[in-house]
Amino acid sequence: AGRNASERAADRAQGMSVGREEAHTDDGGEFFSQLAAHWKKNYAGWTAWMLTPDLKLPGKMRLKESRRVPMWNGPIECRMFRFDMVKGSVRAPRGGDDTAPRKTPPPAHGG
């Protein structure tokens, strides 16, 4: 507050972050991974849709899409991916998980 636009622009030109998080990447490869982590941390319970020609995008984001809708953006084949955001991971732990409910056969009825 109290700073004029030219002072804020000078700060940005010097590389200072002004009240916003920045995605620091050398190339665009890490951007989607950082975006997915941000969504999972801050938007659990929300739904996100993304239109992309990159059919491998969910894997790059380390997210599992709940819907995959084929679409065309002009001559470009794309997919509209739906992601249901959950905090953390939905993967089951590897190995023996004794806390997981198990299906058991119904008891045998004696005659």
UniProtKB/TrEMBL annotation:
Annotated keywords? Methyltransferase, Transferase
Q: Which InterPro entries match?
A: SAM-dependent_MTases_sf
Q: Where is this region: Disordered?
A: 1-25, 89-111
UniProt KW 4Fe-4S keyword: no
- A GO BP term, please? methylation
Basic and acidic residues compositional bias, start-end: 1-11
| Gene3D superfamilies for the chain | Vaccinia Virus protein VP39
Q: Name one GO molecular function term.
A: methyltransferase activity
Say if the entry is tagged with keyword Methyltransferase.
yes
Provide the protein name: Putative RNA methylase
Organism source for this protein? Acidovorax delafieldii 2AN
